[in-house]
């Protein structure tokens, strides 16, 4: 398969020739093998429907177990790219069952890694990480560099989605180094594109464009239409965000063309969204609304809670079936042992004769009783295993119900509100006051969703490191910076604090909310030209200072609103001290002091 990755076009010519020869000589097994191999190459070139059809044809005549598993794996990969996640997982589980039966470790790890990608697309990150780490452990043990690269790549994507960009960049660069050592043009293109994405999130736009253009160049060279579409989408997004609207249109058109050619669902969805942004920037609201509706319709069809439930159910059924097979195997072994023991007892009884009949009867009774005890013990163990499986299934169903309730009662309703307000905005000519009010409600609802995501982010962690908190603060400052043209921001932190400090999820969230409230107050009321945040340690205390050079206020006469009271209440909850220093035309300083002895820390202060 190395040739397929390095030179797919040459591989196509060779495989087409092999298929023609096999068909000429009516060699059904080689026909199936050649069709599946062609399917793999076409998948690498982004032609997913054609690739899927070839592998499905190969299933009809293939007899070799590993070749059969390879066809299932390729079908799963094509369905994943086409957005049919339930069908993708079904095919992957068929492949995994065969590889486990054949004890093919590398192939097992490859499929497990692919299953993790399905969960990643569905937003089920904990399941995705579980599968990727399991696959990476096998690849590293077997020193399989290609598998290690793909595993690092997938873990990096999850880190990027969680906002841990430095970790994501390191994993992507490790993957890129491995792909270059393997001289895999497709792997180099994918890893280059991913590195560019991280630079984009880090706001290093020039570096991002360099990597995205390099990825597009390589994808063109190997003829991967799906990869070309993804790279052009990324370039168009950067151009739109940097107000190079006319330049972006060319890349959006190309991205949409290649995405439709490969029928890659995610890239089609992205291109439709950017068309909406483009026409909105050109003040063509009618066309913008048209593309936005197409975008939301496609997105809703690909990602919904029912699909997640079915996908989770498929894995539960697979794991249950696997356990049942193990139980049946144990019972068969037990029955065979009983038969062997009975034969041995009969043979001994016949040889010893009548002289030892009474002794043999006593021994036979003892052995039978012992065997019954063992059998009862085994049956009890099997019952316990079945109860455990049933309990796990019930817990999984409960998690799905909770996920469905959250989606329906909170996320779906808030998203519906935003969508309804946007439809009103684009569909009707409204008075300025009403339009401003609707905009305020939309922004408030969007803020509520962000705060819900922040809360879920904190709840999903056993603890929150200072690095996590700094990344969250940095993201907040970056967003504020883009919306506040006349205000400059700074964020400084003592380098010695970068490793070791951890908070509980509740304390970490309270600290973040205090800083967020202080920054919001400075933006709203201070009329400042500069706002800064600094973090350092002093006198066995962690100190966080939020300062501005604005108009300030009189502490004696100012009326404390909910914002200041909430900051003081949160400080009391985490055992911290908060000091507010301000005066007319002297700016404002908010200092948070947190005793280090209350924090889990390993650094030298």
Automatic annotation (TrEMBL):
Question: Which intervals hold domain Histidine kinase?
Answer: 405-598
Keyword field: ATP-binding, Coiled coil, Kinase, Membrane, Nucleotide-binding, Phosphoprotein, TPR repeat, Transferase, Transmembrane, Transmembrane helix, Two-component regulatory system
Protein EC:
2.7.13.3
| Segments passing through the bilayer | 347-366
Instruction: Write out the ranges of the repeats annotated as TPR.
Output: 69-102, 149-182
State the coiled-coil residue ranges. 304-345
* Broad enzyme group: transferase
Matching entries from CDD domains are given as:
HATPase_UhpB-NarQ-NarX-like
What Pfam families does this protein map onto? HATPase_c, HisKA_3, TPR_10, TPR_12
Reactions performed catalytically:
ATP + protein L-histidine = ADP + protein N-phospho-L-histidine
> Which PANTHER family does this one have?
NITRATE/NITRITE SENSOR PROTEIN NARX-RELATED (PTHR24421), NITRATE_NITRITE SENSOR PROTEIN NARQ (PTHR24421:SF10)
Q: What is this protein called?
A: histidine kinase
């Amino acid at each position: 398969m190395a040739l397929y990755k390095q030179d797919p076009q040459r591989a196509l010519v060779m495989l087409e020739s092999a298929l023609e020869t096999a068909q000429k000589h009516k060699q059904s097994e080689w026909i199936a093998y050649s069709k599946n191999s062609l399917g793999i190459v076409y998948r690498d070139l982004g032609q997913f429907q054609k690739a899927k059809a070839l592998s499905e044809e190969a299933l009809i005549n293939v007899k070799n177990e590993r070749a059969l598993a390879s066809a299932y794996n390729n079908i799963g990969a094509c369905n994943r790219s086409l957005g049919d996640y339930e069908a993708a997982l079904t095919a992957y589980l068929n492949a995994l069952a065969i590889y486990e039966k054949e004890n093919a470790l590398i192939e097992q790890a490859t499929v497990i890694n692919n299953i993790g990608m399905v969960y990643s697309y569905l937003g089920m990150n904990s399941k995705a990480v579980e599968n990727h780490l399991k696959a990476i452990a096998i690849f590293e043990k077997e020193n399989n560099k290609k598998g290690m690269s793909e595993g690092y790549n997938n873990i990096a994507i999850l880190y990027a989605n969680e906002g841990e960009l430095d970790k994501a960049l390191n994993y992507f660069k490790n993957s890129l180094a491995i792909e270059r050592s393997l001289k895999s043009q497709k792997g180099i293109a994918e890893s280059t594109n991913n590195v560019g994405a991280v630079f984009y999130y880090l706001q290093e736009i020039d570096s991002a464009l360099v990597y995205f253009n390099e990825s597009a160049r390589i994808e063109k060279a190997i003829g991967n239409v799906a990869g070309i579409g993804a790279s052009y989408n990324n370039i168009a997004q950067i151009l739109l965000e940097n107000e190079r609207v006319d330049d972006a249109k060319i890349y959006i058109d190309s991205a949409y063309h290649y995405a439709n050619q490969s029928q890659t669902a995610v890239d089609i969805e992205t291109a439709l969204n950017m068309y909406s942004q483009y026409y909105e920037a050109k003040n063509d609201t009618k066309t913008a609304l048209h593309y936005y509706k197409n975008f939301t319709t496609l997105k809703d069809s690909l990602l919904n809670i029912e699909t997640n439930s079915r996908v989770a159910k498929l894995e539960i059924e697979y794991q249950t079936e696997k356990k049942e097979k193990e139980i049946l195997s144990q019972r068969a072994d037990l029955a065979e042992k009983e038969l062997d023991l009975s034969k041995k007892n009969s043979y001994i009884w016949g040889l010893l004769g009548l002289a030892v009949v009474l002794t043999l009867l006593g021994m036979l009774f003892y052995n039978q009783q012992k065997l019954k005890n063992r059998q009862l013990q085994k049956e009890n163990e099997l019952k316990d295993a079945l109860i455990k499986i049933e309990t796990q299934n019930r817990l999984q169903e409960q998690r799905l119900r909770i996920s469905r309730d959250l989606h329906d009662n909170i996320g779906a309703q808030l998203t519906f509100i935003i969508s309804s307000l946007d439809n009103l905005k684009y569909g009707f000519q409204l008075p300025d006051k009403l339009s401003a009010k609707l905009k305020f409600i939309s922004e408030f609802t969007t803020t509520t969703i962000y705060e819900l995501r922040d809360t879920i982010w904190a709840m999903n962690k056993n603890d929150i490191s200072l690095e996590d908190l700094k990344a969250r603060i940095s993201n907040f400052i970056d967003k504020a910076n883009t919306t506040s043209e006349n205000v400059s921001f700074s964020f400084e932190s003592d380098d010695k604090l970068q490793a070791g400090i951890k908070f509980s999820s509740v304390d970490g969230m309270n600290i973040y909310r205090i800083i967020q409230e202080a920054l919001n107050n400075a933006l709203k009321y201070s009329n400042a030209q500069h706002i800064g945040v600094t973090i350092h340690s002093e006198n066995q205390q962690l100190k966080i200072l939020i300062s501005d050079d604005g108009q300030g206020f009189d502490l004696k006469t100012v009326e404390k609103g909910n914002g200041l009271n909430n900051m003081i209440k949160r400080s009391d909850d985490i055992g911290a001290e908060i000091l507010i220093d301000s005066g007319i035309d002297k700016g404002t300083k908010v200092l948070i002091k947190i005793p280090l002895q209350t924090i889990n820390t390993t650094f030298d202060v």
